[in-house]
Amino acid sequence: MLKIYHNPRCRKSRETLQLIKDHGKDVEVVEYLNEIPSVETLRSVLKKLGLKPVEIVRKGEAVFKEQFKGKDFTDEEWLNILHENPKLIERPIVVEGNKAIIGRPPVNVKELF
């Protein structure tokens, strides 16, 4: 079963979820702004993505520009920042087993099918 970290207000996230459904895949939807991932969950997802925390930060968000832009943080600090500010997490992230994909563009998710 696929798991999508989803923001229903995001067009790319909605498109990715629809693509998954169109391919008949079972999917667990986690609205991560309401069900905030723990630091440990974020660490696990990042391992599956093969990325560092800073690589999934949405740098266009106002909170990033106001509080974090131009500052250096460790991976552990970024994990805590992402947990405390889930709006900064790139979306959507789709996980299947030991692999994960960022659904930008949505077609990326087909790598998990």
From TrEMBL:
Does the keyword section mention Oxidoreductase? yes
GO MF terms held by the record: arsenate reductase (glutaredoxin) activity
Q: Name one Pfam family in it.
A: ArsC
Highest taxon in the source lineage: Bacteria
Write down the InterPro entries for this protein, in alphabetical order: Arsenate_reductase, Arsenate_reductase-like, Thioredoxin-like_sf
The kind of enzyme this is, by top-level EC class, is oxidoreductase
Its EC number is 1.20.4.1
Q: Which family does it belong to?
A: Belongs to the ArsC family.
Q: Which PANTHER family match?
A: ARSENATE REDUCTASE
* Protein name per its UniProtKB record: Arsenate reductase (Glutaredoxin)
Question: Species lineage, top-down?
Answer: Bacteria, Pseudomonadati, Bacteroidota, Cytophagia, Cytophagales
